[in-house]
Amino acid sequence: MKDNFYQTMHFFIIALSFMLTFQSCHGQPTQKQSTFTMNTNQNLLKAVQNNDTATVIKALEQGADVNHTDEQGRSLLLIATVNKHTEMATLLVKRGADVNLQAHNKDSAFLYAGASGQTALLQLFIAHGARFDLFNRYNGTALIPACERGHIETVRLLANTKGFPIDHVNRLGWTALMEAVILGDGNSKYQQIVQILKDAGANMHIPDHDGVTPLQHARKRGFTEIVNIIQ
Description:
The chain is mainly alpha-helical. The chain has helices spanning 2-26, 31-49, 53-61, 76-82, 86-94, 109-115, 119-127, 143-148, 152-159, 176-183, 188-199, 214-221, 224-230. The protein folds into two domains: 37-131, Alpha Horseshoe (Serine Threonine Protein Phosphatase 5, Tetratricopeptide repeat); 139-231, Ankyrin repeat-containing domain (Serine Threonine Protein Phosphatase 5, Tetratricopeptide repeat, Alpha Horseshoe).
C-alpha cells in the first residue's frame, strides 16, 4: 500500500514537471522571439513615418502588428493620416488596421482625417467601420473641425453620411453649424458649408451654452448671406 502511494506520487511529480516544461517552451514567447517582434514593430513604425511602403509590407509579413502604437498612443494609421500619406494609409487599412484607435490625446485616423479635410481617406475609413460615437479631446466629431476649417467636400461627405450625428454638441456647447458661424469669417466658403448643413437636415436653431443661436451669432458678426441661409 505504502509502495503504491510513493509510486503514484512519483508519477504525479514527473507528469507535473513535464506539463510545466511544455508550458515554458510553448505557452510563452522566448526573449529572442519578443525582441524580434519588438524590433519588427519599431522598423514598421519608422517605415510608416518615412512613407516606405515596401518595408511596411515586409514587416507585416514578418509578423509586425498593423495596430502597433508609438509612445503617444498614435496608431500607424493615425501617423500615416497625419502625414497625409494616402497610399500608406490605404495599405494599412487593407492589412487590417483599426480606423478607430485613439491616441492619448483622443485623435484617431478617422477624426484627424475629418479635421484635416482628407475626404478620400474619410470615405475609406467609413467603408471600414469608422465609428461615429468616438469623439476628440473637445468631445467633438470629425465634422465640427471640418466646418471650422472650411473643408467643404469633407463637410458634404460627413453631413450626408447616414447615421452621422450632424447636430452633435461639443464640450464648448457648439454644433458643427455653430462652429462654422463663430469661427468662420462669413465668406463664400462658409456660406456653402452652412447651406450644405441646412440641406442635409441640420438643426439651424441649437443655441450655445449661453443660449445664443447660430442666427444671432451670424447677425452679430454681420454675416448677411449666412443669416439669409439660416432663416
